[in-house]
Design brief:
The chain has 113 residues and is an all-alpha fold. It contains 5 helices and no strands.
């Protein structure tokens, strides 16, 4: 299931690069659906939690590109909540720290718009 989720994410990226935002949204939402299900099935699986944060970040970026700042804020906040939890749970994990920092940068950029 994780591989399928990642495939949807990649398809979303391709559609977004082509300017097909509707197809990108559909792919990212399919990714989010799978990532959310996996993350909910095992709250201790940090890979699945990270994947869920990334899925929210992708939807936030897309919403921002579409001009839907409210949806972007909501998605970024969901991503930040997860990333912060992961970073606090394992302060020595550089990947978790970098994820939180990356999402915080997106949130800051959005607030400056």
């Amino acid at each position: 299931q994780r591989d399928l989720s990642i495939s949807h994410n990649n398809l979303g990226d391709l559609a977004r690069e082509e300017g097909n935002l509707a197809a990108a949204r559909a792919a990212y939402e399919a990714d989010l659906s799978i990532a959310a299900r996996l993350a909910a099935s095992d709250l201790t699986n940090t890979t699945w939690q990270r994947d869920l944060s990334v899925s929210h970040t992708q939807l936030g970026a897309l919403a921002r590109e579409e001009g839907n700042l409210a949806a972007a804020r909501s998605a970024y906040q969901a991503a930040l909540d997860i990333a912060t939890r992961l970073a606090r749970a394992d302060p020595e994990n550089e990947g978790a720290q970098n994820l939180e920092l990356a999402v915080r940068k997106e949130v800051s950029a959005l607030h400056s718009e």
